Amino acid sequence: MSRAKEAFGVYVHWPFCLSKCPYCDFNSHVRHAAIDEGRFAAAFAREIETTAQRAGGREVTSIFLGGGTPSLMQPATVGAVLDAIGRHWTVAGDVEVTLEANPTSVEATRFAGYRAAGVNRVSLGVQALDDVSLKALGRMHSAREALDAVAIARRSFERYSFDLIYARPDQTPAMWADELRLAINEAAEHLSLYQLTIEEGTPFFGLHQAGKLKTPDEAVARALYDVTQETCEKLGLPAYEISNHARRGAECRHNLVYWRGDEYAGIGPGAHGRLDIDGVRHATATEKRPEAWLMRVETNGHGIVTDDLLNSEERADEFLLMGLRLAEGIDPERYTALSGRPLDPGRIALLREEGAITVDATGRLRVTSSGFPVLDAVVADLAA
User: Fold this and answer.
1) Residue 48 vs residues 74, 108, 275: alpha-carbon distances, Å
2) Are 7 and 257 a contacting pair, CB within 8 Å?
3) CA–CA dist 56, 51 (Å, integer)
4) Cα separations (Å) of 120 from 85, 192, 249, 290, 321?
5) d(CA 166, CA 222)
6) What is the per-residue pLDDT across 195-237, written as a single tens digit (0 to 9) for each?
7) CB 150 within 8 A of CB 126
8) How many angstroms separate the CA atoms of 313 and 95, rounded?
9) Which of 1, 229, 300, 370: CA 20 to 30 A from 324?
10) Do 155 and 148 meet the contact criterion of CB atoms below 8 Å apart?
11) Domain spans of the chain?
12) DSSP letter, residue 279
């Protein structure tokens, strides 16, 4: 397959938020002084140029502006980033350009500007559709405001998606099923549905340790997961990845780049990348602190602090770990090509017997609905 035909994504990280959510362990920062967007736009363009010099000749099939809160950027800043990508790589005519946005009225007023800048898909961080939960999650919007922003997104973009968090304190499967039905009615084509996880270093971690934040026990969490799968499947948004649901053909193409083990460039503070240079897969990561990243880029042309060469075993393990998250599963022959050894037939037979995986007539290996809740164990077993 020629390079131009392969999926190649560009991820751009905008690291700033208005406030830090108590469950969030992403690389996001609150700044009370105004952000110098011109300086950041110039640094993004510089890092894009340097990255394209290392990994040229690609056709960009997807661009994802993530964060942080990219909808805090002016549309002109977004336009400058997209222009820089277009200057240094070929961009596919049907490129998917996603921007993550907060569903507040202030940011929704910028949607037309983002559309004019070249964004054609928006992903809204709704997180919940009831005000009590939104307040508990530290969100700055109400449920009404979120639904109004979804309506503006619907008018501004052909494609849009939103996120919800479930397994929240005091949430029952019946409550979640009602919320999901409302969400699917509003979502049109794509939903990202994440179980609340308590991450070390977040305010929620301290509260949880102190017994002041109670999340659903294992049995309720499993029931909530099952309700998620059943409701979405029934209403036409089946899971195509363990936490992502879409109508057929409406999958997020950028996220598929990650899960299928394709190449992507990571631009901006704390961004990760996977690039094939001279036949070797590089795993890159940039400086996380925004101001330190800026200085590195202005001095060196890039903010990379990690540039690891992945050996065949590491590449194969990563392919397995990411690919088995997908409902489409993996082609074991690609694993063999990457690692130099096939998956163990005995382990495959045992996992099939246990009902955790299936292998179809073409040899494609998939995790079953009963295998997904124990996906880590399935992957560990196959990789051993």
Assistant:
1) 19, 28, 13
2) yes
3) 8
4) 15, 18, 16, 27, 30
5) 11
6) 887 677 766 666 667 777 677 788 888 999 999 999 999 999 9
7) yes
8) 32
9) 1
10) no
11) 8-257, 328-383
12) T
What would the two tokens of residue 352 be? 């099939």
To 10 degrees, the CA torsion angle through 30, 34, 39, 41?
70
Query: In the chain, how long is the greatest CA-to-CA distance?
Result: 60
Calculate the dihedral angle through the C-alpha atoms of 123, 141, 16, 166, rounding to the nearest 10 degrees.
-60
Taking 60 as the threshold, does the pLDDT of residue 2 lie above it?
Answer: no
Model pTM greater than 0.90?
yes
In whole angstroms, what separates CA 52 from the centre of its chain? 22
Q: How far apart are CA 258 and CA 10, in angstroms?
A: 11
Class of domain 8-257: alpha beta
By the 8 A CB rule, do 328 and 77 touch? no
Which candidate, 55, 5, 60, places its Cα nearest to that of 274? Answer: 55
Structure tokens at 277: 């240079």
Separation of alpha carbons 123 and 243, rounded Å: 14
How many helices and strands, by DSSP H and E, does the chain display? 15, 16
